[in-house]
Amino acid sequence: xxxxxxxxxxxxxxxxxxxxxxxxxxxxxxxxxxxxxxxxxxxxxxxxxxxxxxxxxxxxxxxxxxxxxxxxxxxxxxxxxxxxxxxxxxxxxxxxxxxxxxxxxxxxxxxxxxxxxxxxxxxxxxxxxxxxxxxxxxxxxxxxxxxxxxxxxxxxxxxxxxxxxxxxxxxxxxxxxxxxxxxxxxxxxxxxxxxxxxxxxxxxxxxxxxxxxxxxxxxxxxxxxxxxxxxxx
Length: 233
Ligand code: MN
Known about the structure:
Blueprint: E1 13-15, E2 22-24, E3 28-31, H1 36-41, E4 53-56, E5 61-63, E6 68-69, E7 77-79, E8 81-87, E9 103-110, E10 113-114, H2 115-124, H3 129-132, E11 138-140, E12 144-145, E13 156-161, E14 164-170, H4 178-188, E15 196-198, E16 206-207, E17 213-218, E18 222-229
The protein binds manganese (II) ion (MN).
């Protein structure tokens, strides 16, 4: 038995629908600008670019129902509702028609973004990490096992703040489908069991403040509720 010199970090994990079991998270990959209307609202041409990726730390996950403290160093915390897929099997160079064989399940998540920091970094050609990969930045609904999933290629995706719908789209609007972008991702990185992929957000992103409650979902897959709390002291 290896003895560690400090207590090993707790395993990050997300809930599983209808079960007390949890899915252990290894890494979180995120697809940038994967809906045309959102690419346009961010001031970019949606048609020209191949998919690109960024990451969040595994322990950024937060269960649905758990409040997220308003993060430090931002005046512009944004929500982004996203379909999330979870890998049960890893692989390199996964062909598109084998991607679904690697999935354990799917859920809905929120790619919380410090938009002011992200845009400042983008404009200066710096990494996006401080805008995207902060503590509590990845609230996740409960995972639905693959065998119980409806299509990942069509279905309503939506988000509301305090009950008012802010984002509404359909999975059929994904510029790069799950099969396509997971296959492409696996050419750059050896994917592994426990990896999550956040698949991009539809248009309508915007700010939240302490006291707001975000709700959202993907039809037939999962729903999420994330209250925004006061900043940590
Ligand atoms: Mn996103």
